[in-house]
Design a protein that fits this description.
With 204 residues, the chain is α+β, with helices and mostly antiparallel strands. The protein has helices at residues 8-11, 16-22, 111-117, 130-137; strands spanning 27-32, 35-48, 75-80, 84-90, 98-109, 153-156, 167-170, 187-190. Strands 1, 2, 3, 4, 5, 6, 7 and 8 form an 8-stranded antiparallel β-sheet that branches. The chain binds a DNA duplex (12 and 12 nucleotides) through strand 3, strand 4 and helix 4.
DNA sequence: TAGAGGATTGAT
DNA sequence: TCAATCCTCTAC
């Protein structure tokens, strides 16, 4: 396994949908308060300023969305429903607002720390959702805008290769407000992982 | 400055 | 099925 953080060039690719797919199988690490945790990414979603589900749709710049305009390889963390911290990877070059939401991981390193942060939850309940995995890894809005090439949070190559027939795609979760953009098949998942947030709807 | 709503979760 | 919970954004 390769423990070196992914090169900046990976995040600066200009196709956020492709990056979302490529992130499957990679390892997301955090080193916070002396606790090292990591998990295998098994579910992602792509967001782009070009479509309505994105916070920075039509390049809307606000205090919250400013991080989305940072260079690829920056963490975008925001609070959802007043309770949950959601972690995204900013992609593309500076001032192009695109990001990949990490929706589920499989716990690999520091599982005991994850269980502690998740208040004793075990098994798939640990990290099978965007709010859950952020909690398990200790990710909060304090990491918003942080460089993914740093020492607190980073991503490395994984230990698995998934063939095309294992990777499923479908509409993103919880973006019905985006009209027809909600139908874009920009959600990607490792089909046989028990840690998916919700099953991927088969494409008809 | 008030009010509505959200890229979710867990309990009922 | 629904409450929790609070920040963000929009409208007035």
């Amino acid at each position: 396994m390769e423990y070196k953080p992914l090169p900046t060039g990976f995040y600066e690719q200009d196709d956020v949908v492709s990056v979302a797919r490529q992130l499957l199988g990679k390892f997301l690490w955090t080193d916070l308060n002396g606790k090292v945790t990591a998990g295998r990414i098994v579910e992602t979603e792509a967001y782009s300023y070009l479509e309505r589900a994105c916070h920075a749709h039509l390049e809307r710049r606000t205090a919250r969305t400013e991080t989305l305009f940072a260079p690829g390889g920056t963490a975008y963390v925001y609070l959802c429903y007043g309770i949950h911290h959601l972690f995204n990877v900013v992609t593309n070059r500076e001032n192009v607002a695109e990001a990949v939401l990490i929706r589920a991981i499989e716990p690999v390193i520091g599982v005991d720390h994850m269980e502690e942060r998740r208040k004793g939850q075990k098994g798939r309940a640990l990290t099978s959702g965007p709010g859950k995995l952020s909690s398990a890894l200790g990710i909060t809005t304090g990491l918003d805008g942080v460089d993914l090439n740093g020492e607190r949070i980073w991503i490395t190559e994984g230990d698995s290769h998934y063939s095309d027939d294992v990777i499923l795609s479908g509409p993103r979760i919880g973006v019905d407000y985006a009209g027809e953009d909600a139908l874009l098949p920009w959600r990607f998942a490792v089909g046989d992982s028990p840690y998916l947030s919700v099953p991927v709807k088969p494409v008809l």
